């Protein structure tokens, strides 16, 4: 289906992501059916959308009339059939549990006509696994939005094993219509671009903390000192250490054992310290956001190493033809708030020294995933092509 024909959409799951996707679609002039199997969560999601639209009106970003019209275009429901039987596109944003998602997609497959595209907002999982129980797999695609959805421009558009080219293109075009900047992930791969590239950084910093080379706060202070928008451990607390653990376990299973959660993370989980949501994680959140003292920054690790580690994972995505360099840097800048992507950053360094450093880190911390990607020795020009094109 061409994007011009998409007028009505459904969002499945009215939580943190679902209500944001619904609001973005309303702002693009679409009719939105919002479904949740929990009545109070549906009400909460609806209230958040109304409050979000009111706030935009009070700031003059939209007119009062538009805010009202968008609210009129929203139909919350706890009846799945009612939500999806008459729409052109469906966004799924239910919890990150494979069984739940497979079940939802099986039902969506049965309840919608074959030209309706079905998109999952999974943060990690193979699109093909989520589509496993559906008969019509070519219309299932990944659309990974970032939180808060209304403000974050980036969306990763992910092809599953069976996703058709037409489905990819329409999903991409719909993101543009929602005023987003989509990037293409051409092959099904866990964590896609941003989460995948940040994964080895967690492994590296986890080893640094476990070996007591530096404390989480000292590392975050170093990152803040260098102007980065947030420290690694602050961000982990903000996301939730249970969620971080889920990603670690999933990647350990499907990518490499090195992704296993580190000792310190396991200790936090054992103590039920999940970060902001429980008031304690790496930091104490009971009095609000932790304040990081940059004077405490560590001199035991190099800030450059974090970029080198990300760059190496980016190179692997390019080598495996999962994403192209330009899209990788775009996704990393828009998804993480850094000023430059890892490819642009490393393009200013000596590549031989970068390769030597990766060899050193891999050996020093006994992590195979930190070994330099083959493409860095064989065909580095392919990795740096986007930087040359700028
Ligand atoms: N929160 C984030 O930062 C973030 C960012 C990107 C992607 N994601 C992904 O988005 C998805 C949703 O995450 P979230 O943070 O919005 O979760 P959430 O817990 O805030 O919301 C999930 C909603 O789904 C509802 N739900 C549960 N089972 C359902 C079912 N069978 N049918 C319909 N509704 C059902 C729940 O009642 C809840 O309202 C996950 O896959 C997550 O990995 C989350």
UniProtKB/TrEMBL annotation:
UniProt xrefs under InterPro entries: 3-OHacyl-CoA_DH_NAD-bd, 3HC_DH_C, 6-PGluconate_DH-like_C_sf, 6PGD_dom2, NAD(P)-bd_dom_sf
The UniProt record lists the keyword Cell wall biogenesis/degradation: no
Pathway this chain belongs to: Lipid metabolism; butanoate metabolism
Keywords: Oxidoreductase
UniProt record, GO biological process: fatty acid metabolic process
Keyword rRNA processing: no
Pfam family of the protein (one): 3HCDH_N
Family membership: Belongs to the 3-hydroxyacyl-CoA dehydrogenase family.
Protein name in the entry: 3-hydroxybutyryl-CoA dehydrogenase
Lineage per the UniProt record: Bacteria, Bacillati, Bacillota, Bacilli, Bacillales
């Amino acid at each position: 289906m061409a994007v011009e024909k998409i007028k009505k959409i459904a969002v499945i799951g009215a939580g943190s992501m679902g209500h944001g996707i619904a609001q973005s679609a309303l702002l693009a002039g679409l009719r939105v059916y919002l479904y949740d199997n929990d009545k109070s969560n549906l009400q909460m999601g609806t209230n958040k959308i109304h409050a979000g639209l009111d706030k935009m009106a009070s700031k003059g970003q939209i007119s009062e009339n538009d805010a009202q019209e968008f609210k009129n275009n929203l139909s919350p429901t706890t009846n799945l059939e009612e939500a999806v039987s008459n729409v052109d596109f469906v966004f799924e944003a239910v919890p990150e549990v494979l069984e739940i998602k497979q079940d939802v997609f099986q039902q969506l497959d049965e309840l919608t006509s074959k030209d309706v595209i079905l998109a999952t907002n999974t943060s990690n999982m193979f699109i093909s696994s989520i589509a496993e129980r559906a008969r019509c797999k070519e219309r299932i695609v990944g659309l990974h939005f970032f939180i808060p959805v209304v403000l974050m421009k980036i969306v990763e558009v992910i092809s599953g094993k069976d996703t058709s080219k037409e489905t990819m293109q329409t999903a991409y075009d719909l993101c543009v219509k929602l005023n987003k900047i989509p990037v293409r992930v051409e092959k099904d791969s866990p964590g896609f671009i941003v989460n995948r590239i940040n994964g080895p950084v967690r492994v590296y910093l986890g080893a640094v903390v476990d070996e007591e080379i530096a404390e989480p706060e000292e590392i975050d202070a170093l990152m803040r000192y260098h102007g980065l928008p947030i420290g690694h451990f602050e961000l982990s607390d903000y996301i939730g250490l249970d969620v971080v653990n889920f990603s670690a376990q999933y990647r350990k299973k499907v990518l490499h054992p090195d992704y296993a959660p580190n000792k310190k993370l396991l200790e936090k989980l054992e103590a039920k310290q999940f970060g902001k949501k429980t008031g304690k994680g790496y930091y104490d959140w009971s009095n609000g956001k932790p304040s990081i003292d940059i004077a405490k920054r560590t001199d035991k690790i190099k800030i450059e190493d974090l970029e080198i580690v990300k760059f190496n994972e980016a190179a692997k995505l390019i080598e495996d033809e999962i994403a192209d360099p330009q899209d990788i840097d775009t996704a990393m800048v828009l998804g993480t708030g850094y000023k430059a992507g890892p490819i642009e950053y490393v393009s200013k360094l000596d590549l031989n020294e970068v390769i030597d450093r990766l060899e050193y880190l891999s050996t020093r911390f006994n992590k195979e995933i930190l070994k330099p990607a083959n493409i860095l020795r064989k065909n580095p020009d392919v990795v740096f092509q986007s930087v040359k094109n700028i």
